[in-house]
């Protein structure tokens, strides 16, 4: 199987896809994005943002499209060419409150409807892909939209938002954290530390317990933003209840699994998406 990986949007070889800039409406706001259409479409995804002021992810989309996966990537609301109000720490608002995560999941759901209409082919399986904060948003969007048939999540927490923040505050950006701290110590802080901020929390396990679509989580063992072992334990519980969820652990990688120096996480994600799509087509 031939896999193309894009490190620069100015491709050295002719791309196997075409692009079209579009706009679509979500909750009364116009969002701007780009659709990548491969010459031979095998699956389709909407890219869901992580936290921060994220514009459309062109390099990521190009890599997927060059491997036969149609993509809609868009500027987050209030960012780039998208209208609306951006919520995030840079502007003094709390982007992890349930109301904002829910709004972003509505945007992702609207993007799925837009991509579905653009492709106008019922045999193409559509899913969601993203990392970090998208680990909470993607299940919420999937619960809202039955067109979503699979989830591909890089470094997404299976714990609540408040628990994840406790862990992140405790690790304090220390890249060598796991060299000096045992798992048990980290868990004590996840479950017992006082919260620095008050907001309506989100528990992904509650939503994932309701879903029946396939999902894969790709983790890095050195992650200092998400407690990976704990998240994997929760995934194992869901799997024991016959949920079609999988995970892949890369012990030497950190939080940024999708864009690490290793091509293996992206390669695994692409192959998994293609296999899931084939299974859905033949159902």
Care to describe what's here?
Residues 41-165 form the Serine aminopeptidase S33 domain. It comes from Flavobacterium reichenbachii. The chain is an alpha/beta fold and 283 residues long. Helices cover 36% and strands 20% of the residues. The chain has helices spanning 58-65, 98-119, 134-144, 161-171, 177-180, 183-192, 204-208, 228-240, 264-281; strands at 17-26, 29-38, 43-48, 69-74, 126-131, 148-154, 214-220, 245-250. The protein has an 8-stranded mixed beta sheet with strand order 1-2-4-3-5-6-7-8, with helices on both faces. Helix 2 packs across helix 3 (134-144) and helix 4 packs across helix 6 (183-192). The chain is globular and about 50 Å long. The two termini are 24 Å apart. Residues 1-12 have low confidence and may be disordered.
Order of helices and strands: EEEHEHEHEHHHHEHEH
Could you report the average pLDDT, rounded to the nearest whole number?
A: 91
CATH class category: Alpha Beta
CATH superfamily: Alpha/Beta hydrolase fold, catalytic domain
**Distance linking N and C termini:** 24 Å
Kindly state the number of beta strands. 8
Protein name: Serine aminopeptidase S33 domain-containing protein
GO molecular function, one term: carboxylic ester hydrolase activity
